[in-house]
Automatic annotation (TrEMBL):
Domain of life: Eukaryota
Residue stretches spanning the membrane: 65-88
Entries under PANTHER family matching the protein: LATE EMBRYOGENESIS ABUNDANT PLANTS LEA-RELATED, LD23009P
Record flagged with keyword Transmembrane: yes
Signal peptide: 1-18
This protein's UniProt keywords: Membrane, Signal, Transmembrane, Transmembrane helix
Protein name per its UniProtKB record: Uncharacterized protein
Taxonomic placement: Eukaryota, Metazoa, Ecdysozoa, Arthropoda, Chelicerata
Amino acid sequence: MWTLLICFLSEFSARLYIVPNLLDAMEERMTLEENAGVGMEIGYHNPGPLAYCPHYTKVNKRFRMYHGICACANILSMACSTLHLYFLSTKLRYALT
């Protein structure tokens, strides 16, 4: 049962505290890229003239940090869900035998 609680709390806290900051950083980054005429590539990132802009590097670093935190919260949630499914399957196996 504690695994479901961890799963819920990780996703809830990420959605409540991290995602709004992530969306703000993503919007600011996309605006900077659109104004510079870069960022429409698929599969790779070529900042072009923004590579030496200190404001862009700061925004990009902030976006990547929030994106990584959200990814870690999702991985934690999936791991806890897997553990809970394992717990349920072992309970079911012992109940059937």
